[in-house]
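Hi V.,

You were right to ask for the full record rather than a summary. Here it is.
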Amino acid sequence: MAKRVQLVLNQDVSKLGKSGDLVEVAPGYARNYLLPQNLAVHATPGILKQVERRREKERQRQEELRQQALTQKAALDKVGQFTIAKQVGEKDAIFGTVTAPEVAALVQQAIGQEVDRRGITLPDIKKTGTYTAEIKLHPEVTAEIQIQVVPE
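Predicted structure:
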């Protein structure tokens, strides 16, 4: 059986790894596919140091994003409750529903910071009242806000 070759990936390769990963592959796979396509380079001490520096920068960037998310969460907790006025019919039923873009606009207006509407999880809001919504600010940080739906 032939010796395996250590490579560092330049790009994501499906079923093998992500950019910057150190992988061991068969010599033929490396020689015939990964190296000619410039998907990987041989693992040398200099390349490994570059990869380590890149990972450290990415880790610091992720930590900075996490801190920003925690700051946003503190601002949301400080505001506490958001109020949305909706047109109301019989038995306090609202026309339409409360949508994530509406909540995102309300949050931006209240705290002056933008939140991603795709990270907002709303309950099924069909009547006036108070509801709890979750906003995912970062993979590790989730904030809960109270939304009060009132008649227009």
